[in-house]
Design brief:
CATH topology of chain B: 3 helical TM bundles of succinate and fumarate reductases
Structural class of chain A: alpha+beta
Largest sheet of chain A: 5 strands, mixed
CATH class of the largest domain in chain A: Mainly Alpha
Shape of chain A: elongated
Structural class of chain B: mainly alpha
Number of helices of chain A: 8
Number of helices of chain B: 9
Largest interface: A-B, 55 and 47 residues
CATH architecture of the largest domain in chain A: Orthogonal Bundle
Strand order of the largest sheet of chain A: 2-1-5-3-4
Number of strands of chain B: 2
CATH class of chain B: Mainly Alpha
CATH topology of the largest domain in chain A: Fumarate Reductase Iron-sulfur Protein, Chain B, domain 2
Largest sheet of chain B: 2 strands, antiparallel
Distance between the termini of chain B: 61 Å
Shape of chain B: globular
Radius of gyration of chain B: 20 Å
Oligomer: heterodimer
Radius of gyration of chain A: 20 Å
CATH superfamily of the largest domain in chain A: Alpha-helical ferredoxin
Helix content of chain A: 25-40%
Number of domains of chain A: 2
Strand content of chain A: 5-15%
CATH superfamily of chain B: Fumarate reductase/succinate dehydrogenase, transmembrane subunit
Strand content of chain B: under 5%
Number of domains of chain B: 1
Order of helices and strands of chain B: HHHHHHEEHHH
Chain lengths: 249, 234
Amino acid sequence: MSTMTINLKVWRQKNQNAQGSFQDYTLSDVSEHMSFLEMLDVLNEQLIKEDKDPVEFDYDCREGICGSCNMVINGRAHGPKRLTAACQLHMRNYSDGDTIVIEPPRAAAFPVIKDLVVDRSAFDRIIEAGGYVSVKTGAAPEANLIPVEQHTSNVAFDYATCIGCGACVAACPNSSASLFTGAKLAHLNSLPQGQPERKLRTLAMVEQMEKEGFGDCSNYAECEAVCPVGISIAAIAEMRKDYVKASFS
Amino acid sequence: MPNLLQAATSQVGRKILTGLTGIFLVLFIIFHLGGNLAIFGEADAMNRYSLMLHDFGPLLWLARIGLLVVFVIHAWIGISIWFRKRKARPQKYEVYSSKGGPSKQSLSSRSMAFTGVVLLVFVVFHINTFALGDMDTVLIDGREAADVKSLVIDTFQSPVYAFSYAFVMLLLGTHLGHGVWSAFTSLGLTGKKASAMMYTIGGIMAIVLAIGFLFIPLYIYFGGGCEAALIQCA
C-alpha cells in the first residue's frame, strides 16, 4: 500500500464574527485508499494529540447521499472529480507532496459557523417558502391513485436527486442559488401533486432566493459541472418558464 | 397575479429581460452591419441608405428611442448583476477553478461585465462621431442628403480611430460568444442537443459579426480610403 505526504492549507475561523486565516499542516503516511474526509480525520487526530483545536467540517452519511460535506478543495466544490461528493473523493486522486487548499463554500448567504462549516439554513428557508406539497395526512394513499407518466416521473426524479449540498452556490461566480431553487421547483412543478400550488410556490421560492442574498444567474453552468448528482441547468430554464407563467396568469 | 414591475425586477425577471433585450440588440447589430456593408456598394449606396432611414421621420425617432430604452435596460441589469455578485461573495476564494465538463466558464462568459461596460462607453463615442458628427451634404436624386460615407472614410484614416474601433469589435465578439447562447438559455432553451447547437451558432455569429464590423475600419485604413479597391467614391 503506497502512502504519501500531503500538505494542507486549511481555512480556520473560530466563529462567524472572527477573522479567519489559512493554516498549513503536513500529513505523512496518507493512504491512497483513504477518503478525503478520512484524511481530515487523521489530521484532526493529530491536532487533538497536540492539544490543538480540530478542524470543524460537516459530514453525515459519508456515502455521497446527504450533501453535508460540501467544501471547496483547490478551488472546486467537492474537489476535482465530477459527480462526486467530497466524502466520495479518495486520496488516490492526489500524489505524494501535493498541496491541497481547503476552504468553506463562500457566499454571504452561507455565513461561516466555524472553519469549513457554513450555515446553509438559507436553503431551508427557500424550501419553507414553497418547496412542498400540501396533502391530507393520515394513512399512506394507494401509490397509483394519481397516475404519473413514466417520462414525467423520470424527469421529476432526476430533479428530486438534489441533496441541497450548496456546491452550486459555492462554485457559481455570482453565488447564485438558481440551480438549487430550479431543481426543487422543477421536481414539484412537474408532478400532478405539485400543480395546485405551482404558481404560488414558484413566485415564493424565487422571492425567497433573492431575499437570502444569493446572486443572479449568468448562465455560467459551473453549478452543473460541480453538482455531485449532475442536475442540469435545464432546471433553471424550467424555473424561468414557470416564473413567467406564474407572473402573467 | 403579482405586480408586473415586481416580476420584471425579480432575479428571474431580470435575467429574462437581459435575454430579451440582448436578442433585440443582436438583431439590431445584424441590421446595422447590413447598413455598414453598403460602403462597398455603388458610390452613393451608403448615403442613399441613410437618406432612406431619415425618410421614416417620426418612425425613425420611435425606433431610436426604443433602441435606447432596450440598451439602457440591458446595460443597467448587467451592471447591477455585477454589483450583486460582489455583495453575494464578500470573501473571495484563495483558489478558484472551473470543473470543466458542462461548465460554460470561459474568457467570454467571465468578461461579460468588462466587455459590456467598454461597449457602453464605445456606443456613446460612436453616436457622437457618426450620428452627431459634422457632415457635408450631397445631392441624391436632386435632394440634399448627409454625406455619411465621407465622414466614415475620413474618420477611419486615423489609426487611433481605426484600431480602437476594431479592438472594441473584438470585445463585441467576445461578449456575444457567451451572450447569444445565454440569451436563449435565459428564455427557456433546454435540451442538450438544442443547447449545444445554440452554443455553436452563437459562437459563429459572434465571430462573423466581429469580423464584419472590424473589417470595414481596417480596410479603409490600410486601403487608403477612396483608393481602396472595393470602395467607390463619387
